[in-house]
Target: Esterase
Amino acid sequence: MSSTSWISRLSRHPLRRAALPAIALGIVALQPVIAVPSAWAQDDKMTPIAIPAQPDAIPLNTGPLPGATNKESWHSQYGSVFARNVTEATLTPFLPDPAKANGTAVVVTPGGGFRTLSMENEGWDVARALAAKGVAAFVLKYRLNQTPAGMPAFERSMAEMFSGVARRPRMDPERAMEDIAPQIADARAAFALIRSRAAEWHVDPQRIGMVGFSAGAMLTLATALKGQDAKPAFIGDIYGPLSPVTVPADAPPMFVALAADDPFFANGGFGLIDSWKKAGKPVEFHLYEQGGHGFGMYQKSTTSTGWFDAFTRWMDMHGWLKPKG
Model:
């Protein structure tokens, strides 16, 4: 099946209004699905692009991805840009105007099924918006599972996954965390780097949170549960899986946003929310009527576009947008 034919079929799928404006499926066995929202159909073609200049990206020194042979590459789609075959992790700071800085920091983890990263819609755009609120934001480009080097083969691999040829993903988040040890190591290194340069970046080491999207939401949750010394002060889970988990005694406050028409995670219950509540930990949950999966910072006509304002109001309620003391 050609990439054009399977993309066309997806754009006519009954789930199209709830579909992804990105390569998504943020669960960990890491077989993403590409679904195409009709609003972005004119931009659905994946076009290879040169790796953007990233002069501010800081290597995290977690080492190359074991066994990786394909080099990092980038492509454009839906008017945005994506990375894949990331073999060495980096962290890119987006620092606020010093006059507005409040001492809070957030590690931003884009989604993409652990095979791509939505670097613009779920990374840079989020970080810029946080910096405008006085928050020091850091986009984590974490290591990814390898995909075919060439774009045609990559597109074919996506088609195979969608048609059910490839292995289906796990749905148990705690078991799935076993599969993302390299990515958890990248997140831990990101927290360590920010804390080591906290004075330089005007960050309070005790006020570093984390927000993730889809697969990035899974990594965010894994960092809070299994990240050992990382310990986010708060977390944002944006359209990640909501299966129940064992909540540790030091679990942070959590903000969750999901669309009721999300084709992947809207019909599996809200066990994660229940787990946090039963553990007596602060949790705020926004279930939007429409928005699908992968809405990120795209401006849509649905109320899901308001998730960022809700998230920062929640941060402000907890005092994280106010200078400490």
